[in-house]
Description:
40% of the residues lie in helices and 13% in strands. It has helices spanning 3-10, 14-22, 37-46, 75-82, 102-123, 164-183, 200-206, 210-214, 219-232, 256-268, 290-297, 317-323, 335-341; strands at 28-32, 51-56, 66-69, 87-90, 127-133, 150-151, 186-192, 195-196, 254-255, 274-278, 302-303. Helix 3 (37-46) packs across helix 10, helix 4 runs parallel beside helix 5 (102-123) and helix 5 runs parallel beside helix 6.
Amino acid sequence: MSSIVRRVRTGGVGRARFVTALRYARMRVLVTGGSGIVGGYVRRALAPAHRLTCFSRTAPAESWDAWTGGDIMDAGALRRACADHDAVIHLAAVPGPGRAAPADLLTVNVIGTVNVLEAAVACGVERVVLASSAAATGFSFQTRAIEPRYLPVDEAHPDAPQDEYGLSKLLAEAACKRYTERYGLSTVCLRINHNWCVDRAGAEVAVRCGWAGRAGMTRERLWSERYRRALREADGEWPAPGPPPPRNLLWAVTDLRDAAAAFGLALAAADVRHEVFLIAGADTCSLIPTPALLNRHFSGVERRASLTGFDSLFNSAKAAERLGYRPRSGWRGSDFAAWLQAQPEGSAA
Length: 349
């Protein structure tokens, strides 16, 4: 534990001062589900500043400061893992509908989150950062077509998930709010959104992790079957389980390096008790400019901001103001973009 954190905890100055001190402290951070794709990016983003422990069922593909094998459904193991940590980043979850029976998905994603919150309270952890999802809005896995009330979508937009995954993330956010109100635990929920591994080095690691590792994915296949297809065959069939059609996602995309940086910002943010933040890239996963997309698909939807070029249909202004989040990467200038440009237009590669 950092000396700053220790002084704040023992000095009787309270949680608000503790949260302010986090900005300057080297923390011990437990990362649930750290062996997954997002976990690898979080490790690379945060390792220079913090001591990171991966808590996961399988060993991570990269070296962490520590790895503890365990399952978030094992409350005892989770509590033991939380001991002597200052914060928790909660990534572990069933990553989408169709990957487990609905009841099982809800159990892991909601009760698993409650287990994390219970362990955090029991061990004196001061902040939990939840990997929520923009699927909580209801757009991502919609089973019947819905339109936004207005654009760009922000945190005030009504949430109406039609699927069990989006519902599970909305309920997990509600659980976080409840634990903040009941116990004073600081909780930050990041609605990360259609994350792409567009740097070559990161993608090479990512395909050895999580669902990609289990599917025998390669970087070439990831870029071709997922990202290239989203750009060049956006209106095609998208089998489940898997990513939704780009239109359902409102063409959102986030460079995973930016999403990972947001977790670091959430750890350090001062004066945050409980908040939900939309984390999205600055542009879309479309080759069609945003005004043309809107005229084609959402011509009657209220526009609350000027959307030009390839502007995102999600508004991360709250995260910019409260966390200092600014997407600094993006797929258009990435290793993936260079690879895509080298592919023949009709190529399946």
